[in-house]
């Protein structure tokens, strides 16, 4: 007897006709024709069953704050930062927590069950830190939430930022953050990278820096981040987020930089929706996209994960908690429209992101947590193409969200009564 049995599933690795048995919150069997009594049986009917979606880069302290106290009229990164500075004095623990919890409801419905969020510590009250520590506790039964101590206004540029960062870590925040390109000078930026990594090494914590989120090809703090990672033995624990300056760097320098990133074991986290809307704002034509060099990084063996970054906040007025939307945008802007390229971008919002966050027990294998999503698609490419409906979301063997199948009705003479939008492309593989 098992708690849950999912039958007739297609898996992201191409296997089909697979059953997944979950008991006691763990996967206890995976393969064809599992014969077991179950408390609940879900027939996937040849649909894609995936591990949960993972967002490795988000700002939950600002989410759903669109229009408070005003809108970002220019749509630029710098106006967004300035607007966030206007909003911070208005924050309350209750308001931040309520907005975050509402976003987490949306995330669960989208099969997004692990999130790393940056939390601004350049507020002496540490209001957002207090709120999100409480949220982390409250959502633990259904979402794995990691918090990054993020000095939004600069570790050295903002008075008291380092002190507040250390206070946040003492309160239980999980990861050391930073924003070296926003410091007053390139030298201060490099110094902030070194200090952030030293704090992480001293405390045995991961590092996740907003790094080179700029169109300036001379912003090269990821080089320092790679060097400090090696110097301090932090390999595998360090994320370089955004890395948009690589979009504008000359190819010769990048031919040196990408191997350095690979040698250091850095994880790279671009944020397609935000990078292509905030970058290139000073260009006329041709306009730069701004997203970092995803296919080149992947080809070099760097773990690339895709983040959502923002949802209805001072920087981005759109967003829906949908990691397939993130992957869909990456397909177009990278561009990565080959079959292998699209599959790798599905991995970038699932297994790669889990690796960047160091999630234990993640995946579809015996012994892993009993967490999965049944999608209205046959394979990862179809899931990205249609931004597939999440039919069933399972956490530790329990169904925590369901969405009816999308099947529009038609009233056309001689045509079908209803269609499945996910079933129109012929299987090519």
UniProtKB/TrEMBL annotation:
Keyword Hydrolase in the entry? The reply is: yes
Q: Which UniProt keywords apply?
A: Hydrolase, Metal-binding
**One Pfam family matching this protein:** Amidohydro_3
User: What region holds the Amidohydrolase domain?
Assistant: 40-400
UniProt GO MF annotations = cytosine deaminase activity; isoguanine deaminase activity; metal ion binding
A GO BP annotation: cytosine catabolic process
Task: Establish whether keyword Ribonucleoprotein is in the entry.
Answer: no
Q: Which domain of life does this protein belong to?
A: Bacteria
Query: CDD domains under this entry?
Result: Bact_CD
Q: Which NCBIfam families match?
A: PRK07572.1 (NF005748)
The name this protein goes by in its record: Cytosine deaminase
């Amino acid at each position: 007897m098992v708690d849950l049995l999912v039958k007739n599933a297609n898996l992201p690795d191409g296997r089909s006709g697979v059953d997944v048995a979950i008991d006691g919150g763990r996967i206890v069997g995976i393969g064809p024709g599992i014969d077991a009594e179950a408390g609940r049986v879900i027939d996937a009917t040849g649909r894609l069953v995936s591990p949960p979606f993972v967002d490795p880069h988000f700002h939950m302290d600002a989410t759903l704050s669109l229009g408070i106290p005003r809108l970002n009229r220019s749509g630029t990164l710098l106006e967004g930062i300035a607007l966030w500075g206007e909003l911070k004095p208005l924050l309350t623990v209750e308001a931040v927590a309520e907005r975050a919890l509402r976003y987490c409801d949306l995330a669960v419905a989208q099969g997004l069950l692990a999130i790393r969020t940056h939390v601004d510590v350049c507020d002496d009250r540490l209001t957002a830190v207090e709120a999100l520590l409480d949220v982390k506790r409250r959502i633990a039964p259904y979402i794995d939430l990691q918090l990054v101590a993020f000095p939004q206004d600069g570790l050295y540029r903002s008075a008291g930022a380092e002190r507040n960062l250390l206070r946040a870590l003492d309160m239980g925040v999980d990861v050391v953050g930073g924003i070296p390109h926003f410091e007053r000078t390139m030298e201060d930026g490099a110094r902030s990278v070194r200090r952030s990594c030293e704090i992480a090494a001293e405390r045995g914590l991961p590092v996740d820096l907003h790094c080179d989120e700029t169109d300036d090809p001379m912003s090269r703090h990821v080089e320092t981040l790679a060097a400090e990672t090696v110097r301090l033995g932090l390999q595998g624990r360090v994320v370089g987020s955004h890395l948009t300056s690589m979009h504008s760097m000359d190819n010769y320098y990048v031919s040196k930089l990408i191997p350095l990133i690979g040698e250091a074991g850095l994880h790279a986290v671009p944020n397609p929706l935000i990078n292509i809307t905030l970058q290139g704002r000073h260009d006329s034509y041709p306009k730069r996209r701004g997203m970092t060099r995803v296919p080149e990084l992947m080809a070099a063996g760097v773990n690339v994960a895709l983040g959502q970054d923002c949802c209805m906040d001072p920087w981005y007025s759109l967003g829906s908690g949908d990691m397939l939307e993130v992957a869909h945008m990456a397909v177009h802007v990278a561009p990565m429209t080959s079959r292998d390229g699209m599959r790798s971008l599905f991995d970038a919002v699932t297994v790669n992101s889990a690796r960047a966050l160091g999630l234990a027990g993640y995946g579809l294998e015996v012994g892993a947590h009993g967490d999965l999503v049944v999608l209205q698609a046959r394979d990862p490419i179809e899931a990205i193409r249609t931004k597939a409906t999440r039919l069933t979301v399972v956490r530790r063997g329990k169904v925590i969200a369901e969405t009816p199948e999308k099947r529009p009705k038609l009233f056309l003479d001689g045509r079908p009564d209803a269609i499945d939008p996910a079933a129109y492309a012929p299987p090519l593989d």
